[in-house]
Amino acid sequence: GLDGAHFYQADLSKPLIEAQWASGGFAAVLLDPPRDGALEMVRQMATLGARRVVYVSCNPATLARDAAELIGQGYQLKRAGVLDMFPQTAHVEAMALFERPA
Q: Which of 5, 41, 61, 70 has fewest C-beta within 10 Å?
């Protein structure tokens, strides 16, 4: 089993301040947005207080855009990589780990 983990589904285009599930904050957040990225969510990341953010993206351009926003909020890029999940296509999956110093 997986102890101490909670999973939520929500419309992340809405303000997190209004979401009761987000009121307790999080130690870590996993983002796997659609191709257009997670800019609205990333802009609210400070509300969650997450020390770590793992960002999985099928669009390296939107990952780069959203990474700039995270870095502007004090997160540091610790690791990044690209995975060829779809051979014989031009598509890749990119992953990045961001951490905010304590």
A: 5
CA 93 to chain centre: 14
Reduced to 3 states (helix: H, G, I; strand: E, B; else coil), residue 12 is: coil
Work out whether the CA dihedral 53, 58, 63, 65 comes out positive or negative: negative
Evaluate whether residue 61 is within a structural domain.
yes
Tell me which residues are annotated as active site.
58
Identify the helix (H) or strand (E) that includes residue 53.
strand 52-57
Q: What phi, psi does 82 have (nearest 5°)?
A: -125, 135
pTM of the predicted structure, to 2 decimals: 0.84
The answer to whether residue 2 is domain-embedded is: no
